[in-house]
């Protein structure tokens, strides 16, 4: 391998820059050239390529977002779009790829790697943590810390006003952000898509919880089966008109900010491992970390989307909210 192309795709995640840095620096370490590709698959199709060196990744390990920019590409979903992308890679002498992103990115990478003779490996970069083949994804740790910071602040005002707050967090169709942040912020209840929501049971939990504590926090994953925080808020208001209920959607603040130490270290480890994997002949695999060891998971397994929820976590919330 002489020239590795690196790109970020899909939703950005804190730590993506640390991953880019690790790919660039380790490639240089091993005597391989690196080409940066801007705006993910879209930029690949449009030929947005540039040579990267040691200095192009200076002073980025601590920055959120992605210096390579990102996009979700409709064109790459078509065989014609993928052929254009391949032609651009050939034209620029790129002979291997490191894709940094989530399930959409790897679904594309999987098809591309099978259609064309180009080794592709992936790094798990998404705040959602919804990939198999890694204990954690790059960006998840920072995002959950951003959430608990925000919920701590909401709790202050909830407490002052004796209010019920229904707080919606991201995660697409995964409840993993809600699950951990619910525990860590001391929420009264968590609503996640992985377990069926029983509105009556939820209301009961709020009503029969501590009588001396009128402020309550419910963390809702955006992909829940009720229809989001506003819908849950509506049910709670209907059932308990005497509660002063507010809804707060945290939104895209969860995607930004300085990556945490955990995300920087994870990104650095898998970034170096990706370059080493390509050198060793790996292809069509996501590089993750399982039980603190580097792991290699075929793309089609990584994006299977059935990361299991530990039921003990939900029980924890119930036990600790008494
Ligand atoms: O996959 C990351 C994520 O932030 C999800 O949690 C969320 O559902 C989605 O991206 C939002 O996407 P966009 O920024 O395109 O609205």
From TrEMBL:
Keywords assigned by UniProt, alphabetized? Allosteric enzyme, ATP-binding, Cytoplasm, Glycolysis, Kinase, Magnesium, Metal-binding, Nucleotide-binding, Transferase
Enzyme's top EC category: transferase
> Mind telling me which InterPro entries this protein's record contains?
ATP_PFK, ATP_PFK_prok-type, PFKA_ATP_prok, Phosphofructokinase_CS, Phosphofructokinase_dom, PKF_sf
Tell me the pathway.
Answer: Carbohydrate degradation; glycolysis; D-glyceraldehyde 3-phosphate and glycerone phosphate from D-glucose: step 3/4
Which reaction does this enzyme catalyse, per its entry?
A: beta-D-fructose 6-phosphate + ATP = beta-D-fructose 1,6-bisphosphate + ADP + H(+)
Alphabetized GO MF terms: 6-phosphofructokinase activity; AMP binding; ATP binding; fructose-6-phosphate binding; identical protein binding; metal ion binding; monosaccharide binding
Q: Name the chain's protein.
A: ATP-dependent 6-phosphofructokinase
